[in-house]
């Protein structure tokens, strides 16, 4: 019987054929934990499970990205505890302050690979679907159990198919597709399900990550783009890659006749820039229908849209120009690799010359803890994926979500602007 | 008796506990009990009593994976959460912590501040007029995890995860 990508991956991990709706215990190929929840994960492992060691130090990755660098004495102390634990465990895949956000980092390092089951302590762990892995976010207890045993359980998800046709018009990109899908599906439209994104093979791996990370915002357990093997990783990273437990000869593929619980069609040829207005992610409008919205802050970053592609798209719009008076433009690259590439080809200097303030690669102000939190009554155009009240600081701040292209155009004018209007 | 706390739909984890009040940001982790709904509903943390019930609209707990959101609710003694749909990470976290969650829409049947009796073992809410509202029983594997007191005690007792044949 034809299977969805999730059914194929989870059948391999369960060691038997599994179908949507059943509950199965599966082997995990990789466990990711980050600084924000690692202290509680370690505590649960040691104190509740009595587990002194992780099940396989090669299959646990630890990333300091949520409060990086440390913002307070407390966070500095907790991060040092995590560093000591990582050393005791002999965990090699440890990425410290400045390396970037866990999701792009594990893809760049080749640690996250197609066909894997990856569970992470960050809800945006759906991101690993950008390489055709089944990535899923979980809380501290589930991650502690997975790290200690190498296993977890899932209800095998139904799959919602988002099928794109055509090509983006200038100034429109993956974020607009993601927001358009959220507009159709609503914030709970894929709860307990997986999302498959078809018709996007022309996107780079990091552009696919925009879609995969956004899958959690419609409630999904995983968000997977069918893998294309040659797209994964670069030559530079190949030597650092760990052995993939998934045989290279095996890749999940789209099977004719696989069952989808819902199909959403999006025609990219006619897609306009999309904007999610406060304070729920599915409150999405065509930018042209939004009216005039003045902003105080433009924030370009996050695992959704802080990639090299996003920095470059913003630089093309900002080149030789300067942000509007009274607007702060924050640029926080998603990873060191993205920042390095942007520094090598002049993208960064273009952004800085245009007035951008540059932050350390990492999650930045996305969780409202540091590096540019918002004050009361401020309005922010944000390239991240959550506009919840209080998300980036004050609960009286307003957050609008959009692409890097819209962010750059908005920084130039001071109000939410269509990229075509400034090119 | 349990007080009913009515919440709307799409209550996200930033509303339950903003990231700024994560345990890693606090000098004393026990202070987490001060922060459930600190901005969304500031009177909650100081007024809620052990056994009180959260009755919410669709998609309760959407957003972040932060287990400290349900943990904060557990610390103040929330006795059950009832919503027509739970976001999946929140639901797993609540299950793992042993907070009973029932899938039902009672936001129009119950009112905020109402005192009711929750009989967990029967899955029934009894209102002050004696009306009984049956809560739909969760799937068997979830009841087994609850009965054990959460996923860690379940795993320690059974040596396996849900969905795995007993050894």
Summarize the structure.
The complex is a heterodimer of chains A (423) and B (167). Chain A is an alpha/beta fold and 423 residues long.
Indicate the low-confidence ranges of chain A by residue numbers: 230-241
What is the topology, as strand order, of the major beta sheet of chain A?
A: 4-3-2-5-6
CATH superfamily of the largest domain in chain B: Aconitase, domain 4
- The CATH superfamily of the largest domain in chain A appears as Aconitase, domain 3
Secondary-structure arrangement, i.e. CATH architecture of the largest domain in chain A = 2-Layer Sandwich
CATH class label of the largest domain in chain A: Alpha Beta
* Assembly state: heterodimer
Q: If helices are DSSP runs of H or I spanning 4 or more residues, what is the number of helices of chain A?
A: 13
| Tally of structural domains of chain B | 2
Sheet bearing the most strands of chain A, described? 5 strands, parallel
Number of domains of chain A: 2
